[in-house]
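Translate sequence into structure tokens.
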Amino acid sequence: AFLVIAFATSISSLNHGLKDFAAVHTGASSLFQVTLTMYPTSQFQQVRKEGWVLTAVALFIILVSIFLMNLLVAQLNQAYQAVFVDMQGYARLNRAKVIVQTLEQVSQKRWSRFLGGLNLDERLEFNEGDIGLAGGIQVLEPSNANPTTVD
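Result follows.
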């Protein structure tokens, strides 16, 4: 609406003989029709004769098309973000459902043997000689994987 009023005011202040752009309200109506591609093509011949009006209308069309394209991209981006969050939630729920269904089929003997094999009651060694907490699974990595410059 701001662009329509701004350009309608600017075009109506120019010295031209076009009825469609003579006043602010008719210019706003004509620019709105141009935006929606409802402006009669026969009237464009008269607009072409008025150089400054043609320049203003062309600039208006360019600005509006850029604005509308950016608005479309922003809406699509926001819709994708909302769908992505829902998609992740549903994927996690389905994964948990599969895990629960699988665990229901595991016998108690096999589950106890699995937990015993994890050795969760043994303490973990952080560094050489540094005994840490129990209840974890130690994963060793190469020393150059995460370099630090300060001890």
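Note: The CA atoms of residues 80 and 132 lie 44 Å apart.
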